[in-house]
Design brief:
4 strands; alpha+beta; 92 residues; four-stranded antiparallel β-sheet; 2 domains
């Protein structure tokens, strides 16, 4: 990885948007920001020249899978086709 010449500029834009900088890695040109009031929690901003990459976990899919397959909902057999010879890929 190399240091992006735009790292400081991007950081200033983020501060101008009133985002809190949680951490930064100058060598890899990464900044982690958050503003929970606006739905941003540990948003990773990666200054990969010529791209600006934003990464954030939107939903914990393991948690969603557990919610959908709980016995209380009675969905585990119908959603994942238990007893069926072919299960959908996301059921594995």
């Amino acid at each position: 990885m190399c240091i992006s010449p735009y790292f400081d500029t991007v950081k200033q834009y983020l501060l101008g948007l009133d985002l809190s900088i949680v951490s930064e890695d100058f060598v890899n040109s990464l900044v982690v920001v958050e503003d929970e009031d606006r739905g941003l929690k540990n948003l990773v901003v990666d200054c990969e020249e010529p791209l600006l990459v934003f990464e954030q976990i939107i939903r914990d899919y393991q948690d969603l899978y557990k919610q959908l397959t709980t016995p209380a909902l009675g969905l585990s057999r119908t959603i994942c086709g238990i007893g069926s010879p072919s299960l959908p890929m996301w059921c594995y």
